[in-house]
């Protein structure tokens, strides 16, 4: 597995990098996943260290965790515990559904835009009602079942996930509602 371990405006020593590699390898082998690569980024937020980690699995799913702590090793350990919990749940769901995905998730290309917020726009009356595009990027939309989409959204810690429904072929959305439940939009 390839690792990219870095720090934002802080130096990451060899001892910490070795600790990260051994701990992540232990978690991955415990749940027999097939990871392709992993990214771990350390940063500092006031008096706390922040650890953000992402592991890309060969099935196309991503596991993401973020943790804060006063010490850098404690921040990583808390992040590792969150990842282990997510992988344990993911493996349990795979066993529960009796479904093994033999092929990686199919991805479709799409355009992604960032629009200017009202605070960025000047206070004068706009000439047109079209929003101002700040950035344009390429993104990928995975082809998943609804259950896999919910699992991917929870693994990524995202509030919303756009996906192509494998059953119907249309573009669907799952999102976390304010009451804690999951919403599913199937046009």
TrEMBL record:
<dbReference type="InterPro" id="IPR003489">
    <property type="entry name" value="RHF/RaiA"/>
</dbReference>
<comment type="subunit">
    <text>Interacts with 100S ribosomes.</text>
</comment>
<keyword id="KW-0963">Cytoplasm</keyword>
<dbReference type="GO" id="GO:0022627">
    <property type="term" value="C:cytosolic small ribosomal subunit"/>
</dbReference>
<dbReference type="InterPro" id="IPR036567">
    <property type="entry name" value="RHF-like"/>
</dbReference>
<feature type="domain" description="Sigma 54 modulation/S30EA ribosomal protein C-terminal">
    <location>
        <begin position="130"/>
        <end position="183"/>
    </location>
</feature>
<comment type="function">
    <text>Required for dimerization of active 70S ribosomes into 100S ribosomes in stationary phase; 100S ribosomes are translationally inactive and sometimes present during exponential growth.</text>
</comment>
<dbReference type="InterPro" id="IPR034694">
    <property type="entry name" value="HPF_long/plastid"/>
</dbReference>
<dbReference type="InterPro" id="IPR050574">
    <property type="entry name" value="HPF/YfiA_ribosome-assoc"/>
</dbReference>
<dbReference type="Pfam" id="PF16321">
    <property type="entry name" value="Ribosom_S30AE_C"/>
</dbReference>
<protein>
    <recommendedName>
        <fullName>Ribosome hibernation promoting factor</fullName>
    </recommendedName>
</protein>
<comment type="similarity">
    <text>Belongs to the HPF/YfiA ribosome-associated protein family. Long HPF subfamily.</text>
</comment>
<dbReference type="GO" id="GO:0045900">
    <property type="term" value="P:negative regulation of translational elongation"/>
</dbReference>
<dbReference type="GO" id="GO:0043024">
    <property type="term" value="F:ribosomal small subunit binding"/>
</dbReference>
<dbReference type="InterPro" id="IPR032528">
    <property type="entry name" value="Ribosom_S30AE_C"/>
</dbReference>
<dbReference type="Pfam" id="PF02482">
    <property type="entry name" value="Ribosomal_S30AE"/>
</dbReference>
<dbReference type="InterPro" id="IPR038416">
    <property type="entry name" value="Ribosom_S30AE_C_sf"/>
</dbReference>
<comment type="subunit">
    <text>Associates exclusively with 100S ribosomes, which are dimers of 70S ribosomes.</text>
</comment>
<keyword id="KW-0810">Translation regulation</keyword>
């Amino acid at each position: 597995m390839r690792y990219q371990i870095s720090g934002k405006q802080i130096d990451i020593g060899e001892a910490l990098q070795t600790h990260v590699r051994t701990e992540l390898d232990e978690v991955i082998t415990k749940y027999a996943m097939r990871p392709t690569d992993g990214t771990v980024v350390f940063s500092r937020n006031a008096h706390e260290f922040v650890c953000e980690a992402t592991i890309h699995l060969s099935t196309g799913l991503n596991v993401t965790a973020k943790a804060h702590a006063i010490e850098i090793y404690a921040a990583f350990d808390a992040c590792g515990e969150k990842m282990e919990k997510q992988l344990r749940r993911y493996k349990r769901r795979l066993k529960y559904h009796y479904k093994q995905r033999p092929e990686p998730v199919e991805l479709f290309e799409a355009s992604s835009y960032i629009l200017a917020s009202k605070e960025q726009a000047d206070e004068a009356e706009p000439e047109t009602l079209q929003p101002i595009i700040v950035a344009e990027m390429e993104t990928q939309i995975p082809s998943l079942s609804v259950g896999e989409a919910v699992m991917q959204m929870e693994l990524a810690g995202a509030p919303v996930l756009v996906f192509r429904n494998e059953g119907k072929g249309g573009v669907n959305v799952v999102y976390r509602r304010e009451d804690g439940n999951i919403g599913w939009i199937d046009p």
